[in-house]
């Protein structure tokens, strides 16, 4: 006899657990299958990569290391004398783990409160919306559902020149659990994960070298913003080598000998630890039976339409396992959309208004199109930018690097892109997301009253600058 549900979700990450909770809130009988088991071998670990070994623990370490960096180097100029500072790495890791435990435990509480059934085991989709679950002891059970949501997430990409060994050559998870600060740290990949993890250990005392195969720094980011950020990272001591293509890594006498090629030819470097952060791939291992009816695209992602439907009736997929940016908040929005569609509603995710954030210092955040994308599309546009160096609150906080940049359609003035590099960019970008979600023009923001003194005044001034009307900087002269 099999158990029957309205919705079974495979995967309890930000896409899966949110979908399960929303489905239950909408009156559907929902279950969530998760294979991750805690160290005690009994309890199921909820929250996926993001909460356990991704977004949350990395932000905890970024916050702690940033405070240490500030106290060590920036307090004195503000009149605060703090001598002989040191980092207690063990306590720092305990703090990180405590935050993770609190949040993942909270999901279990939310499942109970909303009536979601948590099923421990590896979920596999069979034909006819059946889900086979294999528990930690190898026992299998078949469940039936009217709808199945696949939310199995992603895993780090391994590269042949530097396979993970868990000790010297590690992925992002290993980089969050070092027991001592590496003297020399190598990072392969100058993307979001590489820059964030490199920043953590650089602040704590590591000599950090970041190897990036591409010749352009952060090619997906507006290049005016990216160039500003690169200067700041280099000032902080991050050695970022662009066009550095790794060719090999060998561990000898507790050191990693890395060989790579750049514009100057063959190069070598030695590191105590090496983080490989070249991206992630969809995790579909053992997820689908051959007759499930679900298809993968050429890159291994589950093929879905704009509403996250697969080609198999009643089967949906969300998050990192489908097209689009691998972002926790994107996964959650898709999870909510799918649950509501199953319940008969017709919501749609606006993929043009999903914010992106890099939690370095300065933070980098953006939504919408870059200036390069707008230009390549042949669209006429206006740009307004305002530096935090002219913002009183940023100066008072000793965080006056970076800028806010707004790109607007030349004819309609509708905001096409909103970009920030600087203090609290991750929070400020939400103003751009809201504005774009409501189809706002740059003038709408320019006519809005912002509190003084705040960092957000830079948004106001950038919006004014789109039409050449900024108050607190000299405006560009318009071509006649």
UniProtKB/TrEMBL annotation:
Residues 354-463 form the Pyridine nucleotide-disulphide oxidoreductase dimerisation domain. Residues 5-335 form the FAD/NAD(P)-binding domain. PROSITE patterns: PYRIDINE_REDOX_1 (PS00076). Keywords: Cytoplasm, Disulfide bond, FAD, Flavoprotein, NAD, Nucleotide-binding, Oxidoreductase, Redox-active center. One of its GO terms (cellular component) is cytoplasm. Disulfide bonds join 50-55. It is found in: Cytoplasm. Its EC number is 1.8.1.4. Its cofactor is FAD. It comes from the Bacteria. Belongs to the class-I pyridine nucleotide-disulfide oxidoreductase family. This is Dihydrolipoyl dehydrogenase. The gene is lpdA.
């Amino acid at each position: 006899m099999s158990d029957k549900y309205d919705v079974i979700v495979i995967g309890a990450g930000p896409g899966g657990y949110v979908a399960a909770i929303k489905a239950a809130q909408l009156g559907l009988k929902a279950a969530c299958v998760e294979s991750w088991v805690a160290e005690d071998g009994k309890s199921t670990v909820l929250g996926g990569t993001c909460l356990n070994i991704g977004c949350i623990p990395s932000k905890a370490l970024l916050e702690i290391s940033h405070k240490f960096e500030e106290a060590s180097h920036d307090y004195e100029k503000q009149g605060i004398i703090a001598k002989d500072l040191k980092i207690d790495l063990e306590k720092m890791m305990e703090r990180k783990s405590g935050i993770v435990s609190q949040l993942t435990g909270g999901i279990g509480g939310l499942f109970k409160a909303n009536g979601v059934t948590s099923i421990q085991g590896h979920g596999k989709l069979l034909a006819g919306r059946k889900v086979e679950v294999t528990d930690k002891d190898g026992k299998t059970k078949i469940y039936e559902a009217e709808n199945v949501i696949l939310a199995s997430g992603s895993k780090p990409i391994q590269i042949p020149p530097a396979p993970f060994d868990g000790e010297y050559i590690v992925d992002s998870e290993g980089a969050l659990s070092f027991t001592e600060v590496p003297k020399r740290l190598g990072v392969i990949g100058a993307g979001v994960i590489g820059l964030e993890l490199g920043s953590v250990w650089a602040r704590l005392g590591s000599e950090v070298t970041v190897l990036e195969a591409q010749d352009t720094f952060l090619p997906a980011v507006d290049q005016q913003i990216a160039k500003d950020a690169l200067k700041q990272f280099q000032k902080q001591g991050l050695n970022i080598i662009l066009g550095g293509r790794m060719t090999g890594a060998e561990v000898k006498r507790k050191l990693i000998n890395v060989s790579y090629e750049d514009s100057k030819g063959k190069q070598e470097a030695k590191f105590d630890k090496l983080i490989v952060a070249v991206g992630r791939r969809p995790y579909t291992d053992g997820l689908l039976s051959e007759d499930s009816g679900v298809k993968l695209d050429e890159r291994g992602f589950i093929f879905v339409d704009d509403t996250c439907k697969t080609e198999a009736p009643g089967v949906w997929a969300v998050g990192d396992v489908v097209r689009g940016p691998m972002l926790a908040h994107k996964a959650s929005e898709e999870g909510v959309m799918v649950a509501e569609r199953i319940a008969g509603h017709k919501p749609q995710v606006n993929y043009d208004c999903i914010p992106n954030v890099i939690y370095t210092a300065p933070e980098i955040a953006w939504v919408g199109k870059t200036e390069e994308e707008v230009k390549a599309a042949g669209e006429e546009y206006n740009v307004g930018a305002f530096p935090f160096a002219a913002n009183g609150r940023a100066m008072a906080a000793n965080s006056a690097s970076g800028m806010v940049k707004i790109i607007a359609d030349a004819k309609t003035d509708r905001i096409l892109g909103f970009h920030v590099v600087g203090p609290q960019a991750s929070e400020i970008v939400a103003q751009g997301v809201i504005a774009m979600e409501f189809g706002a023009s740059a003038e709408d923001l320019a006519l809005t009253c912002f509190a003084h003194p705040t960092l957000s005044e830079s948004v106001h001034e950038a919006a004014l600058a789109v039409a050449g009307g900024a108050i607190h900087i000299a405006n560009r002269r318009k071509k006649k």
